[in-house]
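Field reference: sequence -> structure
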Amino acid sequence: KFELAVGISLDKYNKRAKLMGDLLKVLQQWYQSKCDGIWEHMYGVEIDTLDNPGWTVSLTGEADKKSINIFVDRSEDNWLSVKSCNDNFVAYGGINNLEEILAHAVEWINS
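Structure field:
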């Protein structure tokens, strides 16, 4: 059973859940817009876990997107590394940083 963290209000939880849903919706729409019968066989989206533990997200198959180079080390479990260029996006983060990674991915998609 998963429970809300102590001290987090239901309103705050609902806002975060909506944000995560919005991020996933943008990611799905981007992926769908790219699929043409050929693109999806060479490019796409990957979301995976790391063994330290954490997350990795990569997007490939774009063009003319902005470069991003971010590294933030807040703690052992709260860190983020984002690198992108005009045609791919790769990010890694701590176990609780998936939402933040996806926010950077959406920013890159929209750049």
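Note: The first strand starts at residue 45 and ends at 50.
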